[in-house]
């Protein structure tokens, strides 16, 4: 089954629902970065959130979600360059902590206190930057806090990654449910009730539910589907893209590296693709 994302509204367009299944996306990230289970879950949650945030505006050119925490994982980055695609990395992929007292991945401890930055690039001169302190480090709660605090949109965010005993990703996905301005209290209360009793996202997706079925769980009255699309891990890097940043090192520095190593090799942090440049090519 391929991963897919769904955008829907309900309660007379007063509630917006984003749901996504990302089992394949997170497994691909695990394979590329060779993450250990706690790191797989943390990066997977960030990628899942980033995918949904990447489809929230038609004019968005690039959305970046960055967790800079003091925990052992270091920085975690998710980037969505076009609707339905995501790429990401974390500073220390080889992190695996004991489970927390609830028997879940201790993502909060692995991320640690710090800041969450959301950068929205609409192709204009200055991208929009939203910065909030990391609340719990559980990723989903932090994104919910960001929406409420920075964008003034009350939101509930659920993100989950289930890792099989062999380390592979067994199920992953999430939802973002947002109350739009003017939403009646009764609708908000009904949603709160749904959220209180909804099983963990991983439990839902692992049982075989699709993102469309997950979205239906939040329906109040009828559900209006706005879009449905496949999602994938995709890196848009190219040899040309790294030339600019390389050249900014300056002639002296580049000559020194070429003298020492014969050429310059750059590796993409998002997909591990290597690019080699000779002196002539630069
Ligand atoms: Zn790449």
From TrEMBL:
- Write out the PTM section of this UniProt entry: Under oxidizing conditions two disulfide bonds are formed involving the reactive cysteines. Under reducing conditions zinc is bound to the reactive cysteines and the protein is inactive.
Annotated compartments: Cytoplasm
UniProt cross-references to Gene3D superfamilies, sorted A to Z: Hsp33 domain, HSP33 redox switch-like
- What Gene Ontology terms describe where this protein resides (cellular component)? cytoplasm
> Between which residues do disulfide bridges form?
235-237, 268-271
Spell out the molecular function terms from Gene Ontology.
protein folding chaperone; unfolded protein binding
Q: Please verify whether the record's keywords include Hydrolase.
A: no
CDD domains according to UniProt: Hsp33 (cd00498)
The family annotation for this protein states: Belongs to the HSP33 family.
Reported function: Redox regulated molecular chaperone. Protects both thermally unfolding and oxidatively damaged proteins from irreversible aggregation. Plays an important role in the bacterial defense system toward oxidative stress.
Protein name listed in UniProt: 33 kDa chaperonin
Q: Which gene encodes it?
A: hslO
